[in-house]
Design brief:
Blueprint (H helix, E strand, L loop, with lengths): L1 H17 L10 E14 L7 E14 L4 E16 L7 E2 L1 H11 L3 E6 L2 E7 L5 H11 L12 E8 L2 E12 L4 E8 L6 E2 L1 E4 L4 E3 L1 H6 L3 E12 L6 E13 L9 E16 L10 E2 L24 H15 L9 H11 L4 H11 L3 H11 L5 H12 L5 H14 L4 H8 L9 H20 L10 H13 L2 H14 L5 H5 L16 H9 L4 H4 L1 H13 L5 H13 L4 H11 L5 H15 L7 H18 L8 E9 L4 E10 L9 E10 L2 E11 L1 H7 L12 H11 L12 E7 L2 E8 L1 H11 L8 H11 L1 E19 L5 E23 L13 E23 L3 E24 L4 E7 L5 E16 L7 E4 L4 H5 L7 E3 L2 E8 L4 E9 L1 E3 L5 H5 L3 E9 L4 H5 L2 E9 L7 H21 L3 H9 L6 E12 L4 E13 L2 E11 L5 E9 L2 E10 L2 E12 L5 E10 L2 H20 L3 E3 L7 E10 L2 E8 L2 E9 L7 H4 L1
Antiparallel strand pairs: 1-2, 1-15, 2-3, 3-4, 3-5, 5-6, 6-16, 7-8, 8-9, 8-10, 9-13, 11-23, 12-20, 13-14, 14-15, 17-18, 18-19, 19-20, 20-21, 21-22, 23-24, 24-25, 25-26, 26-27, 26-28, 27-35, 28-29, 28-34, 30-33, 31-32, 32-34, 35-36, 36-37, 37-38, 38-39, 39-40, 40-41, 41-42, 42-44, 43-46, ...
Helix pairs in contact: 5-6, 5-8, 7-8, 8-10, 9-10, 10-12, 11-12, 12-14, 13-14, 14-16, 16-19, 18-19, 19-21, 20-22, 21-22, 30-31
Protein name: Vitellogenin
GO biological process, one term: cellular response to estrogen stimulus
GO molecular function, one term: lipid transporter activity
Length: about 1250
């Protein structure tokens, strides 16, 4: 008995030792699992709508070889969710389930060894979307089990890519079951299964990302693993993935994705027969494969079969809807058109072109939308159109820019695009656009390929070398600008060959200033990719005092784009202390000063370094002139929103010249860790600068007629300039990419002078335009533009792609009808128009519709389930008038007929929805507002939110002109205790501005306004006696006001002496309403000038025109040592009056004073003033003003600004019973005292 017991114990011990937990599958077994996976999108708040999808199926795994297994799926169920949790449920979509099941019936297999899923194979008929769903199921088997460690971390591949996994295990010795938990940090995967496009030109800002993220993801797996002698067996597994997303900072409220999947073992049985070999092909490993289907637009779903007739019909519909008006409801049709065009093969696109080529409107819609076919097809189509000269200049330029900038930047397409560089063009502007656009394509290619291969930039490098050999200035400038667009680090060596003193092995003696300037700016985008190399070159340029000052200043600008260290800033500062060129010093100092106040994250460290530099330089350079070269920056940034904006302006001058060497303006937008360089404009007035030289003869600076005459006298000498020097050069950049630059030279000026000269005859452009107007002119223009298509796609644990997309679409439209009559008619030249009376009748409209979508959810070719923000903002400005112009008599008249319809000039609407779409029935998409209705809010019992639902309509009505201007808005917001930024924007928003006819009574309707007439007479007749009396009265009243506010006798006499001159009529203007009964009512304004010696005095009289009206408003101004104005209104300009005066006192501490005084004002103004006065103490406290209760002058408010130092001011504001003071307030601009200027 003892022997038997001992044998049992030994046998039990052996059995225990042979049990294993590490995972494997037995090829001779058949495993059957029940699988369920679902995903939901919403806010994660009670009673808020959500969108979701759920997939259920039975998964059967059977062995084929020792490490190869086949999958079979049965009982496939697909359901969608679109509603409020707790009140709605998943709803079966049987047809879509059948569609998925049909693919899952195809052969699918995988290899599996020691807990690692290897190669996945599937039939070619199985789509990538379905293979990814299979990856989501197989992801449960991709797990590393270590039975000898309780806690461990591994970086391993999974469906999300190569990510860090944290494991924790616990073994139930009695049940022989291991509970394993695996947490995957998806946010920080080293090699993430993701795809991003559309944001290449938005520079990443790492410092901003440190302040907050916009996306955070994590996955938690839990396993029950049963130990067996062969290997561990998963009996149950669950996964929960949470992702939080916001367009702002994660700390401030988020959208939420919750994805759950579960796998439960139901049976394990022996395999009774061999698995047949079936035809399959490799589909990759367990890592999610991004499906790059550009036709699968997330904000729209439609069936894409037979696309050509659908696209043709859409083009016709869009033309019809947007020709004579702008139909904002057709924006979705434009998105559908982009989808359809993206699936049409090249030969059918070419056929579509031939069908619309001779239809102007359909041709335009086709060309402006086919550019969104972002692959080799658009390049082939564009090449054909350019070679056959089918496009005019404007069409070619717009199509090239948009096609190249929206092209998918793959190596293959980059090589295809190279052929455009060697094509022959009959228009220099078109070739220039091609070269610049190729550089932009290289930049986007490098944004997604690091390090960027040199082959990408090689064609432009070859062009640069050839331009140097040929010494072709314009070609050098063009290639350098293209290299600047490309921003390729390997182009630095080619660029430095154009920079004097940088490359000692290159002779740049012949480099012209324009070429050097282009070369410096060519490093602007390389600054973020290779900052050290750019810093070395720009520092050499800046320290080279033999260079022209504008080149050194440009170098400093590019240097600061690299975000230099405090050491490099200190080096620049030390050299500035010894600098002799005050233009360079002024520029650098003002740039440092602007940067020291910067709030944007990208300048976080640079602003500190700049502050130190300012303190070092201030004692020596704080009193520099405001009129020298300078740099100005203004910016703002919110950590809560992770959004900001920055504007910069640069003026580059030479000491010996009046006109600047260059002017540049930039505007950047900061959002969620990126910087988008929205727009940049630059002007280089090279020829004008030489023309004006160091000064303008007889120019006094008071902007009088003599000053304008002095400028005109200089401009008349433009013919003396060299033929090869442009008068003016301009460039424009958008998203950091230069797409246009041009020179305006002597030839251009001569053509303009000939065309617009009064002696221009029948062959001139102006004559032809006038002839067209006489015969009747009609023009229609529509420009649809998909401005932004930014997509971020990432894997989920379910194998479904979660997508964050932003779409911004604009449709610009304009329609003009015009017909002119000229009496007497022109016979010889266009100058005769100046002696004729012209009547112009015209109607039309101008406007746009801007639409924005933010999509967050699942987007596949089978279904979409997401949260979607949609905004739409249309503007339409119609017109219909008859104009009469008599240039000789200086009389102009506009007549507007009555409109009986309401016109919505502007509107804005937005809302957030939970959406569900499927390809089986895309027209029956489900969409409900994300936020709860007021009824559902009132039913909440816990965590009650705040409700806000203002609805208001306000109208300003003019009974005289029979017009009303109305604004209306409605907001719906539901938010909780957390005042997060995201919740401020969620909900329904509508605002509209409308113009409509108005009549207050039936009596007025009978005499409704038939037309509105505007008249202007720029050469009025002599002043009538009644008007002269009124003018004298105004001047006496003005005199009394001035003398009462003066303190010295001289100040009292001076306005008295100014009352002597006679008023001279300058301008007369009338705005009249004409009714059907010929009744005239409206307003008349007369402007007078009174010569008074050294003083400049003007009078304005506004009168109400009507049967028995005597209301008038009188305004008198006078400018001498002080600037003063007196306003009076009422019956004959009485009894109400207000006066304003200001004075500038120069000296060691310049002072600016202003006084507002009122004698008598209407009661409504008094009441409004008292309401405003209640808020003054609180606002003063917020703005850090000190307050003193003092008895000051009644019925008067005064303010004084005193220059306390070179960069600060003291402010004092006096109210009747309160005085506010603030000292050492930072000055918005440099202050120069009289002594300093001298």
């Amino acid at each position: 008995m003892r022997v038997l017991l001992l044998c049992c114990l030994v046998a039990l011990a052996v059995c225990q030792k042979s049990l294993r937990y590490d995972l494997s599958l037995n090829p001779n077994k058949i495993y059957e699992y029940q699988y369920e996976g679902w995903v939901k999108f919403g806010l994660g708040k009670p009673n808020h709508a959500e969108s979701g999808a759920r997939l259920k199926t039975i998964v059967t795994i059977m062995g084929a070889q020792s490490d190869t297994f086949h999958l079979q799926f049965s009982n496939v169920v697909f359901e969608e969710f679109n509603g409020v949790p707790g009140k709605s449920d998943f709803v079966a979509v049987n047809q879509l389930a059948q569609k998925i099941a049909a693919q899952l019936e195809k052969p699918i297999g995988f290899t599996y060894t020691a807990g690692n899923v290897g190669e996945i194979k599937a039939s070619p008929e199985v789509s990538d979307t379905v293979v990814n769903i299979v990856r989501g199921i197989l992801g449960f088997f991709q797990v590393t089990v270590k039975s000898n460690q309780d806690i461990y971390e591994l970086e391993e591949i999974g469906i999300h890519g190569k990510c860090l996994s944290s494991y924790a295990t616990k073994i139930n010795e009695q049940e022989k079951v291991m509970d394993l938990t695996q947490v995957v940090d998806v946010t920080n995967c080293r090699e993430k299964a993701m795809f991003q496009t559309g944001m290449a030109t938005a520079v990443e800002d790492k410092v901003s990302r440190q302040r907050g993220e916009s996306v955070f993801s994590t996955v938690k797996y839990t396993y029950n693993i049963k130990a067996t002698e062969e290997a561990g067996l998963i009996t149950k597994a669950q996964a929960l993935e949470l992702q939080f997303f916001t367009p702002f900072n994660l700390k401030g409220g988020t959208f939420k994705m919750e994805a759950m999947k579960e796998l439960v073992l139901t049976t394990v049985k022996d395999k009774t027969q061999d698995t047949p070999n079936r035809q399959m092909e490799s589909r990759g490993n367990i890592v999610y494969k991004v499906v790059k289907n550009w036709a699968n637009v997330p904000i729209m779903m439609q069936k894409l079969d037979d696309p050509v007739p659908k696209a043709t019909e859409l083009i016709k519909r869009l033309v019809q809807a947007n020709t004579n008006q702008l139909d904002s409801t057709t924006t979705e049709d434009a998105i559908k058109l982009y989808q359809l065009l993206r699936v049409i093969p090249l030969e059918k696109l070419e056929k579509m072109w031939m069908e619309v080529e001779h239809n102007r409107n359909e041709r335009n819609w086709f060309l402006q939308t086919v550019v969104e076919v972002n692959d080799a097809r658009i390049l082939a189509l564009l090449e054909r159109l350019l070679r056959e000269h089918k496009l005019n200049r404007l069409e070619a330029i717009t199509v090239i820019v948009r096609a190249f900038n929206h092209l998918e930047a793959t190596p293959e397409l980059l090589r295809e695009a190279e052929k455009f560089l060697t094509m022959t063009y009959n228009d220099a502007m078109i070739r220039r656009t091609v070269v610049l656009s190729f550089g932009s394509l290289v930049y986007r290619h490098c944004a997604y390929n690091t390090p960027c291969p040199e082959e990408a930039i090689r064609p432009l490098l070859n062009m640069a070398e050839e331009s140097r050999r040929n010494n072709n200035e314009m070609e050098q400038i063009l290639v350098l600008k293209a290299l600047g667009n490309a921003g390729h680090p390997r182009s630095l060596k080619a660029i430095e060959k154009f920079l004097p003193g940088v490359d000692p092995n290159t002779n740049q003696a012949d480099s012209k200033p324009r070429v050097v300037s282009a070369a410096v700016q060519a490093m602007r985008l390389i600054a973020t990719r290779e900052p050290h190399g750019v810093q070395l070159r720009t520092l050499k340029l800046f320290l080279n005092r033999e260079l022209k000052p504008e080149i050194r200043m440009l170098a400093l600008m590019i240097m600061f784009d690299t975000k230099p260290s405090i050491g490099l800033v200190s080096t620049v500062t030390a050299h500035l202390l010894e600098e002799r060129d005050m233009q360079v010093v002024n520029f650098a100092y003002t740039y440092f000063k602007s940067l020291s106040r910067s709030m944007t994250p990208d300048n976080h460290f640079l602003s500190t370094a700049a502050s130190v530099a300012v303190k070092i330089l201030a004692p020596k350079f704080c009193h520099l002139s405001y009129y020298r070269s300078r740099a100005t920056r203004m910016d703002w940034f919110s950590d809560d929103y992770l959004i900001g904006t920055a504007a910069e302006a640069f003026i580059l001058k030479r000491a010996s010249q009046v006109i600047p060497a260059g002017l540049m303006v930039k505007w950047n937008f900061h959002f969620i860790g990126r910087i988008l360089q929205l727009v940049e404009f630059g002007i280089r007035p090279e020829g004008l600068r030489d023309l004006f030289g160091a000064s303008v003869p007889e120019f006094r600076g008071d902007m009088s007629m003599s000053d304008f005459q002095a400028i005109y006298d200089v401009l008349k000498k433009w013919e003396t300039l060299p033929d090869d020097k442009p008068l003016l050069s301009v460039y424009t950049r958008a998203s950091g990419q230069e797409f246009f630059f041009n020179d305006f030279n002597k030839d251009f000026m001569e053509r303009m002078m000939r065309e617009f000269s009064p002696t221009a005859g029948r062959d001139s452009f102006v004559w032809r335009m006038i002839e067209q107007l006489i015969h009747g002119f009609s023009w229609r223009g529509v420009l649809p533009f998909l401005t932004v298509e930014a997509r971020y796609i990432q894997a989920t644990t379910l194998g479904l792609p979660v997508e964050i997309s932003k779409y911004y679409h604009t449709v610009n439209a304009m329609s003009v009808n015009a017909k002119a009559a000229i009496s007497p008619q022109m016979t010889d030249n266009v100058g005769q128009l100046l002696d004729a009376e012209t009547t112009l009748k015209t109607d039309g409209f101008i406007g746009y519709t801007k639409s924005f979508w933010l999509f967050y959810g699942i987007n596949t070719d089978l279904f979409q389930s997401a949260v979607e923000l949609k905004t739409k903002s249309p503007i339409t400005i119609p017109w219909n008038f008859v104009g009469k112009f008599n240039t000789r008599e200086r009389k102009f008249e506009l007549e507007f007929p009555r409109s009986n319809r309401e016109v919505e000039v502007f509107s804005f609407s937005s809302n957030v929805f939970a959406i569900s779409r499927d390809i089986v029935n895309p027209e029956a998409a489900k969409r409900i507002p994300l936020l709860p209705t007021e009824q559902s809010v009132s039913q909440m019992t816990n965590c009650r939110p705040n409700k806000w639902h203002p609805v208001e309509k306000m109208c300003t009505k003019s009974t005289i002109f029979g017009v009303s201007l109305c604004s209306e808005y409605e907001l719906r917001r539901v938010y909780y205790q957390e005042q997060y930024p995201l919740y401020h924007f969620l909900g329904f928003t509508h605002f509209a501005l409308k113009v409509a006819p108005y009549s207050s009574s039936r009596a007025q309707q009978a005499t409704a306004v038939e037309k509105i007439r505007l008249e202007m007479d720029a050469s009025p007749s002599a002043v009538s006696e009644s008007m002269r009396q009124l003018l004298n009265h105004m001047r006496r009243m003005s005199k009394e006001v001035r003398t009462s506010s003066s303190t010295s006798r001289e100040q009292q006499d001076r306005p008295t002496r100014g009352m002597e001159g006679s008023p001279v009529p300058v301008l007369n203007f009338k705005a009249l309403a004409l009714s059907s009964s010929q009744r005239v009512e409206g307003y008349e304004a007369s402007f007078y000038y009174t010569p008074e010696g050294e003083r400049q005095s003007t009078q304005l009289i506004v009168s109400h025109v009507g049967e028995s009206s005597n209301w008038k408003m009188c305004v008198t101004t006078a400018v001498a040592a002080q600037a003063k104005a007196h306003v009076a209104w009422g019956e004959q300009c009485q009894p109400y009056s207000v006066s304003v005066s200001s004075a500038y006192l120069s000296g060691n501490k310049p002072e600016l004073k202003a006084v507002l005084r009122w004698d008598r004002v209407p009661e409504t103004m008094v009441l409004n003033g008292k309401r405003i006065a209640k808020y003054i103490p609180g606002m003063a406290f917020l703005l850090c003003f000190t307050q003193e209760e003092e008895k000051n002058a009644m019925q008067e408010v005064s303010a004084s600004v005193i220059a306390a130092s070179a960069d600060s001011i003291d402010v004092k504001i006096k109210f009747p019973e309160l005085t506010l003071r603030r000292e050492a307030l930072p000055s918005p601009m440099p202050i120069s005292s009289t002594e300093t200027e001298q």
